[in-house]
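Q: Hi! First time asking for a complex rather than a single chain. Here are the components, and I think there are two in total. Is that enough to go on?
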Amino acid sequence: AQKVTQAQTEISVVEKEDVTLDCVYETRDTTYYLFWYKQPPSGELVFLIRRNSFDEQNEISGRYSWNFQKSTSSFNFTITASQVVDSAVYFCALSGGSGTYKYIFGTGTRLKVLA
Amino acid sequence: EAGVAQSPRYKIIEKRQSVAFWCNPISGHATLYWYQQILGQGPKLLIQFQNNGVVDDSQLPKDRFSAERLKGVDSTLKIQPAKLEDSAVYLCASSGVAVQGSPLHFGNGTRLTVT
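A: Yes, that's all I need. Here is the structure of the assembled complex.
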């Protein structure tokens, strides 16, 4: 069975602090994809990044960085120098299994960045 | 390109009434998903279409929920009769190709309140 766990329900930080959102996944598939989505108060989920199971290179995009470690089944997301606009709910998701391309989402982490 | 369109944005009904939601995916997107997102939880897949065929409806409560995607373009999700526990945001998403790992593009969702 596939599962995504985001143990942090809510995190509050002060603007300019760094923050890391944790994601742990379970799958028996050898080929799978991991994602992060952002859900601002408007409600629309916005795609941030995708990694496949064969590429463990970390990625940096501006203030965002992602750390993928197969050994610990984790795909963590770090925001450097957080801003108020980063306040949102962040979801980690897993897509795997041949044929159906089903997405499994975690329960999300609500990030509050205080000015 | 225009995003995924959903309507209505909000709906309030009494239990045992029926309701329908509409989704128009991004033009050319073959795969369409309906998700249910209960407050404080991650999106849960209800049904996935590939063109006008159903790929996965294993988590759709078929005694009360139905969905169709005629002509492989827009889609309608119906609940009849509604229960209090159906109160949630119903999200529609689409992806361009039926390739594992394709990011999902989400609409703004329909917030349903059942009283």
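A: The interface with chain A takes residues 3, 31, 33, 40-45, 48, 55-56, 89, 91, 93, 95, 98-109, 111 of chain B (CB under 8 Å). Let me know if you'd like any chain examined more closely.
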